[in-house]
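Fill-in record for STE24 endopeptidase.
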Amino acid sequence: MTSNTLFYLLIAIIVIVFLIDSLLDILNARHYNNNIPDELSDVYPEDEYQKSIAYKKANYKFKLVSSLISLCIMLLFFFLDGFAWVDGIARSFSDNPIIVGLLFFGIIMISSDILSTPAAYYKTFIIEEQFGFNKTTIKTFFIDKIKGFVMMIIVGGSLLALIMWFYEITGKYFWVYAWALISVFTLAMNMFYAKLIVPLFNKQTPLEPGELRDTIQEYSNNVGFQLKDIFVIDGSKRSTKANAYFSGLGSEKRITLYDTLIKDLNKEEIVAVLAHEVGHYKKMHVIMNLLLSILLTGVTLWFLSLFIANPLLSEALGVGIPSFHIGLVAFGILYSPISEITGLIMNVVSRAFEYQADDYAKNSYDGEALINSLKKLSKNNLSNLTPHPAMVFIHYSHPTLLQRIKNIRK
């Protein structure tokens, strides 16, 4: 294969992935006006249902336009030798391959984030604002951006520097050390994310003593779930949308409730949602997802080690000096079809886990309370009740509301 052939193969992969995603969005959009199944007839009043359709259409049009603009920018970058240009800028500062790689990815990532900021701003302050979801101030929006930049530089830069250092000293065996590093980092994030990262963006406070906390504690004791902490996060600082999640492992496990969830649901419905989260823990889904993620990371890094030293990758992107960072960009695009397949498999597994967690909540607490909570959350989030089956199969990590209700009531 010549470098020119590889170049057009990379272009073809980018365009084909875009076309497949766009086709799925178009198919999904044709289902927006479908009749609501009888089981979901009480989710939306008619005016709210029409609002949900308008919200879906607004997001659909926004995604099509923004993704098309992103595709055009990317293709221009390819055809105008943008990678060679950025590589030249990075090399003008240093001859050290690690520093060059960090500067290269720093320029690419920060430039990409800046270019995507207008779209993110429009989605937050036009679409989400129009439909009553947005609670983010302009100040908070840009402070979040700055914090994201800082975290990307410190955390992402440190990990990338170590991986490139492993490559410099071990050659093709770097993937073993990189795998160990990323595995440790992934485990640490699973255990301490709520303590280290979340406080940078949100305020977390212990759930106040009272009837809700007592009911949650009673349920936890009944099912043998040793719950150390129950926290409330100020999700209303940014959005009216509600959520709850389980985080941590071992003695570090905790349950976090969005303040919007406490506002939208009654006591029984909140406990049913928590019973679902406890089900994930009891069924070992957290551990299995962690192990699957680590395994897929190892496979990806091994594949990377087979190709990264091939100068053809750099030549295809118009860069004369072969390097780890240019090879990583080309490999990332070549690997994207495989990544789409592994992502699909992970979604299939995730949907199976969601059914199991729902079953656990039904058997250990109250299935109808869980159904009521799911309906309220779907209504309040203007969720799509009639998605296209292909969209569900490929992109949904959770079953649809109708599928979950049928499973709970079967």
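KEY FINDING: The chain has one domain: 3-201+283-409.
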